[in-house]
Protein backbone atom coordinates (compact mmCIF):
# COMPACT_ATOMS: atom_id res chain seq x y z
CA UNK A 1 0.00 0.00 0.00
CA UNK A 2 1.51 3.38 -0.98
CA UNK A 3 2.27 5.74 1.88
CA UNK A 4 -0.40 8.27 0.85
CA UNK A 5 -3.13 5.61 1.01
CA UNK A 6 -1.96 4.44 4.44
CA UNK A 7 -1.87 8.01 5.74
CA UNK A 8 -5.33 8.83 4.38
CA UNK A 9 -6.85 5.64 5.73
CA UNK A 10 -5.32 6.28 9.14
CA UNK A 11 -6.71 9.83 9.21
CA UNK A 12 -10.17 8.56 8.30
CA UNK A 13 -9.95 5.90 11.01
CA UNK A 14 -9.02 8.54 13.61
CA UNK A 15 -11.56 11.08 12.32
CA UNK A 16 -14.39 8.58 12.56
CA UNK A 17 -13.56 8.09 16.23
CA UNK A 18 -12.28 4.54 15.93
CA UNK A 19 -9.39 5.09 18.32
CA UNK A 20 -9.04 6.17 21.90
CA UNK A 21 -10.47 9.38 23.23
CA UNK A 22 -10.36 11.30 19.97
CA UNK A 23 -13.55 12.98 18.80
CA UNK A 24 -15.81 11.59 16.09
CA UNK A 25 -15.91 14.19 13.34
CA UNK A 26 -17.68 14.44 10.02
CA UNK A 27 -15.53 15.13 7.01
CA UNK A 28 -16.77 18.73 6.87
CA UNK A 29 -16.22 19.35 10.60
CA UNK A 30 -12.70 17.99 10.35
CA UNK A 31 -11.90 20.01 7.23
CA UNK A 32 -13.15 23.20 8.88
CA UNK A 33 -11.12 22.54 12.05
CA UNK A 34 -7.96 21.81 10.04
CA UNK A 35 -8.55 24.75 7.67
CA UNK A 36 -8.60 22.79 4.41
CA UNK A 37 -11.37 21.95 1.97
CA UNK A 38 -13.64 18.93 2.49
CA UNK A 39 -12.71 17.85 -1.04
CA UNK A 40 -9.05 17.72 -0.10
CA UNK A 41 -9.79 15.61 3.00
CA UNK A 42 -11.99 13.24 1.01
CA UNK A 43 -9.42 12.73 -1.74
CA UNK A 44 -6.54 12.42 0.72
CA UNK A 45 -8.40 9.80 2.77
CA UNK A 46 -8.99 7.79 -0.40
CA UNK A 47 -5.34 8.01 -1.44
CA UNK A 48 -5.85 10.34 -4.39
CA UNK A 49 -3.79 13.15 -2.81
CA UNK A 50 -0.50 12.92 -0.99
CA UNK A 51 -0.41 13.99 2.66
CA UNK A 52 -0.55 17.76 3.22
CA UNK A 53 2.16 20.04 4.59
CA UNK A 54 3.76 19.37 7.96
CA UNK A 55 1.90 22.33 9.47
CA UNK A 56 -1.46 20.97 8.29
CA UNK A 57 -0.57 17.52 9.64
CA UNK A 58 0.23 19.11 13.01
CA UNK A 59 -3.21 20.79 13.00
CA UNK A 60 -4.78 17.42 12.17
CA UNK A 61 -2.98 15.83 15.11
CA UNK A 62 -4.19 18.56 17.43
CA UNK A 63 -7.82 18.18 16.33
CA UNK A 64 -7.61 14.38 16.51
CA UNK A 65 -5.74 14.47 19.85
CA UNK A 66 -2.87 12.30 18.66
CA UNK A 67 0.91 12.63 18.61
CA UNK A 68 1.92 14.91 15.71
CA UNK A 69 5.26 13.15 15.26
CA UNK A 70 3.45 9.87 14.64
CA UNK A 71 1.31 11.39 11.89
CA UNK A 72 4.30 13.19 10.41
CA UNK A 73 6.26 9.93 10.32
CA UNK A 74 3.37 8.11 8.62
CA UNK A 75 3.32 10.89 6.01
CA UNK A 76 7.09 10.60 5.51
CA UNK A 77 7.69 14.08 6.90
CA UNK A 78 9.60 15.66 9.77
CA UNK A 79 8.47 18.59 11.90
CA UNK A 80 10.11 21.73 10.46
CA UNK A 81 10.71 22.97 14.03
CA UNK A 82 13.36 20.28 14.46
CA UNK A 83 15.78 22.20 12.24
CA UNK A 84 15.55 25.21 14.54
CA UNK A 85 15.98 23.02 17.61
CA UNK A 86 19.09 21.40 16.15
CA UNK A 87 20.46 24.82 15.13
CA UNK A 88 20.40 26.00 18.76
CA UNK A 89 23.13 23.47 19.67
CA UNK A 90 24.27 21.94 16.38
CA UNK A 91 27.37 20.08 17.60
CA UNK A 92 25.71 18.63 20.68
CA UNK A 93 22.56 17.65 18.81
CA UNK A 94 24.58 16.07 15.99
CA UNK A 95 26.60 14.11 18.54
CA UNK A 96 23.41 12.98 20.29
CA UNK A 97 21.70 11.87 17.07
CA UNK A 98 24.80 10.10 15.78
CA UNK A 99 25.29 8.29 19.08
CA UNK A 100 21.67 7.11 19.14
CA UNK A 101 22.03 5.96 15.53
CA UNK A 102 25.42 4.27 16.00
CA UNK A 103 24.23 2.43 19.11
CA UNK A 104 21.15 1.20 17.28
CA UNK A 105 18.76 2.27 20.03
CA UNK A 106 15.21 1.02 19.61
CA UNK A 107 12.23 3.37 19.80
CA UNK A 108 11.54 2.03 23.28
CA UNK A 109 15.12 2.71 24.40
CA UNK A 110 14.90 6.25 23.02
CA UNK A 111 11.61 6.78 24.85
CA UNK A 112 13.22 5.56 28.07
CA UNK A 113 16.22 7.86 27.51
CA UNK A 114 13.91 10.83 27.01
CA UNK A 115 11.99 9.98 30.16
CA UNK A 116 15.23 9.71 32.15
CA UNK A 117 16.26 13.15 30.91
CA UNK A 118 12.87 14.61 31.88
CA UNK A 119 13.12 13.13 35.37
CA UNK A 120 16.62 14.52 35.78
CA UNK A 121 15.58 18.03 34.72
CA UNK A 122 11.89 18.61 35.37
CA UNK A 123 10.32 21.47 33.43
Explain the layout of strands and helices.
Elements: H1 3-15, H2 27-34, H3 38-45, H4 54-64, H5 68-74, H6 81-88, H7 90-102, H8 107-120
Helix pairs in contact: 1-3, 2-3, 4-5, 6-7
Give a verbal description of the structure.
By secondary structure, the chain is mainly alpha-helical. The protein is 67% helix and 0% strand. The protein has helices spanning 3-15, 27-34, 38-45, 54-64, 68-74, 81-88, 90-102, 107-120. The protein is elongated, with a radius of gyration of 17 Å.
Briefly say what this structure is.
This protein is mainly alpha-helical. The chain has helices at residues 3-15, 27-34, 38-45, 54-64, 68-74, 81-88, 90-102, 107-120.
List descriptors.
single chain; mainly alpha; 434 Repressor (Amino-terminal Domain); 8 helices; 67% helix
Number of domains: 2
CATH topology type of the largest domain: 434 Repressor (Amino-terminal Domain)
Whole-angstrom Rg? 17 Å
What is the approximate shape? elongated
Low-confidence stretches: none
Biggest sheet details? none
- The tally of beta strands, per DSSP, is 0
Total helical elements: 8
Mean pLDDT: 91
**CATH C-level class of the largest domain:** Mainly Alpha
The CATH superfamily name of the largest domain is lambda repressor-like DNA-binding domains
Order of helices and strands: HHHHHHHH
Residues in helices, as a percent range: 55-70%
Q: Pairing-aware structural class of the strands and helices?
A: mainly alpha
Strand residues, percent: under 5%
Amino acid sequence: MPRNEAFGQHIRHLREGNRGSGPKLTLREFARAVEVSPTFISKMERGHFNPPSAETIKRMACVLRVDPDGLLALAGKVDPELGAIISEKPRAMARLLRTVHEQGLSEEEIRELCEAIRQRRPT
